[in-house]
Design goal:
The protein has about 110 residues and is of the alpha/beta class. The protein has helices at about 20-35, 50-60, 85-100, and strands at about 10-15, 40, 65-70.
Length: about 110
């Protein structure tokens, strides 16, 4: 994949997207914007036909920086299964840096 024109200013945000976490997410987004960067997250694209993994991979490829909050992996109340999507997305970002295209070697997380 080619290096996106805005790669150096994009920040991929990987965190919980629930009501409890919303104040922290808003603080992260505010800080990213105040520092002159562009926040990117899976929330920005609402196409239900898009495969989530492909969306995440596109966002990681387009972002030099990543903020990953993996502090909440407790079991889901409904299913009893742990929330492993955030550690998984961190792993994708780390893998992109090590195995991805040349521009991805510049990634920071």
């Amino acid at each position: 994949m080619a290096k996106p024109a805005d790669f150096e200013t994009n920040v991929f945000i990987n965190c919980p997207f629930d009501k409890t976490y919303t104040p922290i997410l808003e603080a992260i987004v505010f800080t990213v914007l105040a520092c002159g960067y562009t926040p990117r997250s899976a929330l920005q694209e609402r196409d239900a036909a898009d495969i989530r993994l492909e969306k995440i991979k596109r966002l990681i490829n387009a972002s030099q920086f990543g903020i990953h909050d993996i502090s909440r992996t407790e079991p889901d109340v409904g299913s009893g299964l742990p929330r492993f999507n955030m550690p998984f997305e961190l792993g994708l970002d780390i893998g992109a840096r090590h195995y991805g295209a040349k521009h991805l070697k510049e990634k920071k997380y």
